[in-house]
Every structure is written in structure tokens, then in C-alpha cells.
Amino acid sequence: MKTIALLGNPNVGKTTLFNALTGSNQYVGNWAGVTVEKKEGYLGKDIKIVDLPGIYAMDTFSNEEKVSKEFLTDGNVDLIVNIVDGSKLERNLYLTSQLTQFNKPILLIVNMIDVAKAKGIDINFQKLSKELGVTIMPISASKGTGIEALKNFIGKNDYNSLDLSINKKHNFLKMNEKETYAYIENLLKTSIVGKKDNTITTTEKIDKLVLNKFLAYPIFLGLLFLIFKFTFEWVGGPLQEVLDGFVGGTLVSWIQIPLANSSAWFQSLIIDGIIGGVGSVIVFLPIILALFLGITFLEDSGYMARAAFIMDKLMRKLGLSGKAFIPLIMGFGCSVPGIMAARTLESEKDRKLTSLIVPFMSCNARLPVYGLFTAALFTANEALVILGLYLLGISVAFIIALIFKNTLFKKDEEPFIIELPEYKLPELKNLLIHTWEKGKGFLKKAGTLIFSISVIVWFLSNFNMGGMTDINTSFLSSIGRFINPIFTPLGFASWENSVALLTGLMAKEVVVGTLGVLYTGDLVAQIAANFTTITGLSFLVFTLLYTPCVSVIATMKKEFGGKFALFSVVYQFIVAWIVAFLVYNVAQIIL
Predict the structure, then answer these.
(1) pLDDT per residue over 290-303, tens digit each?
(2) Is the model's pTM score more than 0.85?
(3) Within this chain, do residues 253 and 134 fall inside the same structural domain, yes or no?
(4) Among 380, 332, 391, which residue's Cα sits nearest to residue 358?
(5) Residues 188 and 277 in one domain
(6) Rounded Cα–Cα distance for residues 73 and 51 (Å)
(7) Which residue segment(s) compose the domain that 9 sits in?
């Protein structure tokens, strides 16, 4: 078994290349003793490819750099595949110079050759290979150019026969950083021709607009607003209505036919329990997919890195390091990967602080709740209300971060370093694949967890110690009435609403599933009848901010221990209660 180490700077296309080489034959875990993601994949049966963390150098001692250095030293590596961005060779080759210390065969992959050509950069690969003393292969990983040739090269070659003259020809290890960069600059002068130094690229033109100090924030908010319009009004919302009509009408009619001669309790289980619970959540799949499509477009286009850069300025004024915004962005999809992404932050305090505020980012699991309540109570302003909830989550996160930063987590701020990738128009195929991969988790949850909770809720709402009974004397109503006083000051107190929030601790989508079981009939109409705009807004705010699901709590416990997880559970519930209380009472005065 041959072992290949794949290494490069962030944003050079390393993950795209890793996926192209290994396909679905890959495994993800953690490096032993270090909370840094470890990716391994296989090309055929005899070649293992280890995707090392993206780093800029080997001398700043971050966890990612320690992992890479230790693996290259002790991991029995047969070949180092160093991937660089063809349009940014001067910066990327600095890491290449440091790889010579490991005395391993190096294959230099120059990626994004299409981007380089678009910038007027014409690379003489043969001359660069000769001057640098390393074998070079040009590719475009995103377009698949050169991938098959690379696979054949890796699969057929004896790596020990590769030219090792880079180790002998250049004395990089005795150069300091400034001599090294000077050498690389001079080397590239003889290997690159036709570079249009004075040409303003498309990326630079766009950045002049989106990074403008006056326009950056309005553009950021405007893009979010357009995504929500696309999600709730233009595409996702209309498709959701169609699916809702099918599930609540056609599907129920079909299922009622074979159930005609079955017992009343069994009919209730299927229609009210399973379809009422799971179906009321499934109908929001178009909204979930539409939002994922919009966010994935921003990610793949290169804008999300700009969003992190833009928000860094504001976050620093609030006392939070800009590095934390990357996990926060991931929290919009799900809090679990957001908390795990906090591992990349340098200090333990930053990791803990960031993990405490990630759950305030509105994850996709809350979308069914938003979709239900806005359809019932805010029909004319759905996108605006949803945008307001997302911004409220961000604002509360910033305020909490500022409070904790000056109390529990006093420390100096760390510099925020991020590379802004080139803008590109995402390919439709990749957009659809990434969107489906994210949406698939929603369907899996609907078919397992939400299904199970719906059956349990149905049982508890139809039985008590004496057997089958009316819902108002059931186990569930007793539980709801017991916890109901907690929510009375928030305006939406009823035992049905209290129970829905309780089951939401399993998964936020279950809130809708529970309401679908408890409020029989048209759920949108039932919400409109049982809530006002003010109480509905209070309910939405509480749902946005209160204790996250058990998966997030378990991740907190795994990362930082039980006491930390318990603290996060309690303080988030308190914050949610206080903010919802304020919204409810202030809204009564204003409205």
C-alpha cells in the first residue's frame, strides 16, 4: 500500500482534487489527540491518499501545521502531492520550499490553469520544472482537466524515481523567509510570460464593489434578502404549497381507502400521528432545498469568504475575533459542524466562546417552524420576517460574545487571516449535488427521528393510565400543563405549544411535527386561529434562540465536557426567555 500526502494552501482546490481522485471511497475522522479533521481516501486498492489540512507554512505552530509536519515526518509517506494555485504561484511556492526538509519525492500539481490563463498568465511548465527541480503536472480540478492523466501517473509510477533535485539544487532550508520569496520571484520571472500586470481582473472589479466600506453591508444584507425571497416566495414557498396540498389532500385520501375497515385507533395513528407529524415536516423540503441552493451558490461563487472578511470589522468592534465568523456561517446550516469547525481556532478560549454562540445562528432545522408561522401570520412579509430572525440571531450572538469576552473569556484578540478566492460561476451539476447532500440529512431525520417522535407524541396525546382517552386528559396534556407556567409571560402559553417546544429539544423540526399531531386539520389555519402576530412573533423568537437539539448538546459535551454542555443548555434557555419576553411586551406597546 502506497501512501500519498495531499498538501497545499487553503483555497487552492485541494478538496476538489481529493474528491476527484478518491470519489466516494473516503473516510473522515480526527487525528489522534488533536481535534483536527482527518480525511483519507483510496485510489484503487493500493494507493491511500491522506488529505492534510490546508496551511500556508510549516513554522507558525497551529494544530493544522503540527498535524501535517508530524505526518510527513512519521507517516511513512511515499509521495508528497503539493497542489498550488497557478494564478498565485509566488505565494503558494513558499510552502513548497519548506517541503524539501522532509526529503520525500514531491509532485507539484499546478491547479486552476484556466484561471491563470484568464489573468493573462502563461506558465512555461517545462522550464519551471527544470528550474525548480520538481515534476509538475498542470490541471483544472473543477473542470476535470488533467485528472485522468494524474490518476495514471500516480497509479503507474515508482515514486522513488521522481526527480529529487529540488532537495539538492536549492538550499531553501538555509534561507530566511525574505530570501526565499526573493528567489521564488526571480525564478518565476524566467518561467512566466505574458502576465498582464496592469490588467484589472473580474474578481478585482467585483471586490471594489462588494468590499466597499459604504456598500459592503447593504450588499451583504441585500443578498440574504434575495435568498429568502427566492426561498419563501419565488421558488421554495410555491413548491411547498403544492407538496402540502398533495400530502394533506391526495395522499391522505389514498391512504384512507385501505384503512376504511381498520380500527379507529389505527386510523388515528396513521393519519393523525404519522402523516400529521412526519407529513407536516416533509412538506417543507422545497424550502430547505431552496435555501441550501442559495447558500451553496454564495459559497461556491467565492462570496462567503468575503462575507467573513466584511463581518470581521464589525465583530472586532464587539470584541469578537473575525476568525470565529467561519464557524458561525456554518452554523446557518447546522450547529454541529459549526461547533466542530471552531476546532481550527488557535486558543481554547476562542473555541469555547465561539461554540457557545454558534447555536444562535438560525440552523436549517428551524426553517419548517418559520415557514409554518410566516405562512399563517405574516403572509405579506415572509422574507422580511425571516431575514429579521436571522439578523436577530446574529445580533444576540454578538452581544453575548461581547459580554462573555469581557467577563468569562478575557483575552487579547488574534489576527484574522483569510484568503479571498477568485469569483467563479458555480457549475449547475455541483450546485445540485451539494444542495442534495445537505438536504439528504433532512430527509433522513424525517424518516427516523421525526417519525419516532411523531408516534410517541400521538401515543401520549391519546392515552392516559386508564387507556385511550380524549387529548385533553392525556399524558401529554398533563406534561404540557405542568410546564405551561414557564411560557405564560411570553404570551403563547397553551399546553400544546409548551409540549411542542419540549419535543423540539430532540430536533427543531419536531416542533412542527408535534403541532401537526396536536392541532388536527389544516395546520396553517390552526396556527392562524391560535396565535396573534405578536404571540406568533414571540414564539418564533423563542424557537430561534432556545436550547439547541440533543445532537448539538452531545457535540458540546464531546468537545468540552459535561459541565460546559450543561452551562450552554441553561444559559441559552434563559437568553431565549428574556429576549422573547422583551419582544412580546415591547410589541404590545408598539403594535
Answers:
(1) 888 888 888 888 89
(2) no
(3) no
(4) 332
(5) no
(6) 15
(7) 2-193
